[in-house]
Amino acid sequence: MTIPNEIVMLAGHPVRRMGFGAMQLPGPGVFGPSRDRDQSLAVLRRALEAGVTHIDTAQFYGPDVANELIHAALHPYPEGLVLVSKVGAARSDTGHWLAAQRPDELRAGVMANLSSLELDQLPVVNLRHHSETDVPYAEQLDVMEAMKAEGLIGAIGLSNVDPEHYRTATARTQVACVQNPYNLADRSGQAVFELCRADRVPYVPFFPLGSAFNPENPVLGSPAVKEVAGRMGATPAQVALAWLLHQAPNVLLIPGTSSLSHLEENLAATDVVLDQEALDALP
After folding, report:
1. CATH classification of 28-179 is 3.40.605.10, yes or no?
2. Cα–Cα distance between 208 and 58 in angstroms, integer?
3. 61 an active-site residue?
4. Residue 263, SS3?
5. C-alpha distance from residue 127 to each of 68, 124, 157, 189 (Å)
6. What tens digit of pLDDT does each residue of 224-280 get?
7. Where are the domains of the chain?
């Protein structure tokens, strides 16, 4: 099975709509080494073999784990692969998520990504906003634009932003993409989703299958999703991913996994075409 050749432009790079997210490659809680390093490497290699051209990662996944695995599995990177990272967060020694929002922290994050991935330039870096930061957004955008001018990053994306952040950023620079929450059970990002759709900015939902930190997954556990999946001969995950692809042509998906079987299941979601009965049944 290979991914259909449906292309969206991401920062000037043609990418297929089904990508891969590296968040699940580190250990539990996105912290520490992979449970099975060889399988994680195999997952990354299989993703590329199947046609994935867009991989999402971050130096703070692990920390230092996801990028190391990507480098070990895929370097030297094939032409056409777009690696997208993000800055604005860090991890404590015990795995707690921390804000890293100051301009010097954002620059340090970019430099750490460049070093671990062995790149001269990151194609896209998402500026992840932390709701409790006291750093003015304009100062964060200043350093991102400066790094773009220096050639360290090719394009600026946004993550975890509200409409005000989005409008502030798009008034200053060309936004490559937005990575916000959005799935069948979480429409909190609807306003930004609509702005991106109107502006044809790629929208990359994180947790497209529901939060990896919620054991009672409201997406995959939804009776409606299960019913549609059973009727269509698909899995709940495939239905949830197909629903997202149906929402707008600018949606890019990055479902993550450290399992080869789950990878194949996710990739096959591009073959699922939801009929009107399915769309009407989904919440």
Report:
1. no
2. 17
3. yes
4. helix
5. 21, 10, 6, 16
6. 999 999 999 999 999 999 999 999 999 999 999 999 999 999 999 999 999 999 999
7. 28-179
